[in-house]
Amino acid sequence: MNNENLEVYPLFAKTIVRTQIDLEGTDLSKIEWAQNYQNEISTSQNVLDEPNFTKLRKECMKGINDYFHGVIKVSEDTEIYITESWFNKTNKGQTHHRHWHPNSTLSAIVYLSGETGKGGNTSFITSQYDTLEFDVTEGNLWNSRSWTVEPAVGTMLIFPSSVEHLVQPYDGDEPRISLSFNTFVRGNLCQNKLMRLEV
Question: Which of 21, 68, 109, 110 is deepest in the core (most CB within 10 A)?
Fold first, then answer.
């Protein structure tokens, strides 16, 4: 963009936040695994309720509250909380299928292990399409229909649960292990007339 007077308004964006969390003391050695569609999933879907992951849960809740109350500025009258949580294990050559997280407000991914630069990237994909398809000279946040994030241990991605995403093929020898979790809300959601809601 050469015009210094040009202003860009990223209106109505699907806000995705990338942050770092402290993984010190997180022990993954006792996770029990089951087969998922194209990778493995923990047998428990409430792993953050387990006592040995108390610190990890606190780190995740800090990130979620920073997003919910700090970034999108939801009133403190509305509480957000974790409803379910599980681990994913992706071995060499495996992927995660394209999906979204129904019955959830915000979802998150925390990268716990794996080799950087060996694939296994998370791609976010829009489900909204324009009527005209243009050739673009450069992809950016304003014209892309998908956006890819390379995994790095200790990184957490937080996003609206309706945003579709997948994991590209992983080529590392060390398993790529991630935590995923969903959230919901309770309290006074809205005080406006004709839209009041308390859950």
Answer: 110
DSSP per residue, 137-161: SS--TTT-SEEEE---TTEEEEEET
Residue 39 forms part of a structural domain: yes
Give the pLDDT confidence of 70-118 residue by residue, as tens digits. 999 999 999 999 999 999 999 999 999 999 999 999 999 999 999 999 9
**Residue 153 tokens, joined:** 């241990």
Task: Report if residue 166 sits inside a domain.
Answer: yes
Pick from 127, 166, 182: nearest CA to 38: 166
Cβ(153)–Cβ(167) under 8 Å? Answer: no
Q: How many CB atoms lie within 10 A of CB 139?
A: 11
Give me the number of domains the chain comprises.
1
Q: What percent helix, strand, coil does the chain show, rounded to 5?
A: 10, 35, 50
CATH number for the domain including 61?
2.60.120.620
Instruction: Identify the domain containing residue 125 by its residue range.
Output: 17-24+32-186
Confirm whether 55 is domain-assigned.
yes
- Tokens at residue 193, please? 């007339």
3-state secondary structure of 95: coil
